[in-house]
Amino acid sequence: MKGKYVLVLLFVMLLAACGQVEPKKETKKVEETVNEVKETIGVTVIQKKHKEKKLQESEAKLVIDILNKAEKQEITGSFGEPEYEIQISRDGKKETYYAWLRGEDRRGWVQYKKAMYMLNEKDTEKLLDIFPNVSEQKEDEMQVSPLTEVTKKDLQITAFHIKTGDQNVNYTVRYTISQSLYNKLVKEQEYYLQLNFPEKVQKLIGAKESEMILGEKVKEGYKQYELHATVPIKSASESQLKSLETYYESYDLKILNSKKEKIGVFQNIIQIVKDYGEKMNFQR
């Protein structure tokens, strides 16, 4: 009887040992399968049918994550010819996406089959950093003259906003530039913007003008840019801050080159914005 008990105990121990070994084999099999899946995913990006780039594993993963986050949108009309074709290969199957990444609002669009998806600004910028970029400058744009003057022919102020905070004033100026000015700013690399304050505001702020602020770098063919200026106020009551938010008259915008030399002044910018708005309404 005692011998039978020992045999049963040994049998139970063997079963337990087998149970411990078996999951390890399962885990290894799963890991191998995952590795196989990773190896079969490839992403190739083609820019307008003439430049092709096969992405590295880290780049491919980032692109797939971004595409998965894109928000589906119902739109009418067409964006025209896509800038990029994105080919994703998974286990021998190929998915094709089309992308438009250089809209003026900085948000890209992706088409998969017949559905359209919108990307946020940060994800659009990440894709532009990864994707190939072939310059398509025309011959007449290759010869760029020096940046000596900026006039209303080359720069249009489209919006002007004033918002006060805790003992400071926040200014936002939106502007659109011409192709000619774009080409010059690409060559110039740096330019500066400066707000001149009206007399009424100078008394509260204690300064005649803002600091010279480095202009937003022109890139990707974009024509619309913004100036953000924060100006501190030493001491102002709540009513004084409120009055600053509602007073828009007689602000001027100064443009300076990379040497901080003045190359243009736009006077009473709120009137320029109003004229622009009236022109847009008339065209509509």
From TrEMBL:
Assigned keywords, A-Z: Ribonucleoprotein, Ribosomal protein, Signal
Which intervals of the chain form a coiled coil?
none
Signal peptide bounds: 1-21
Q: Which Pfam families match?
A: YhfM
Domain YhfM-like as annotated: residue spans: 44-134
Which GO cellular component terms are attached? Answer: ribosome
The answer on whether this UniProt entry bears the keyword Ribosomal protein reads yes
Q: Which InterPro entries match?
A: YhfM-like_dom (IPR058780)
Please state what the protein is called: Ribosomal protein L5 domain protein
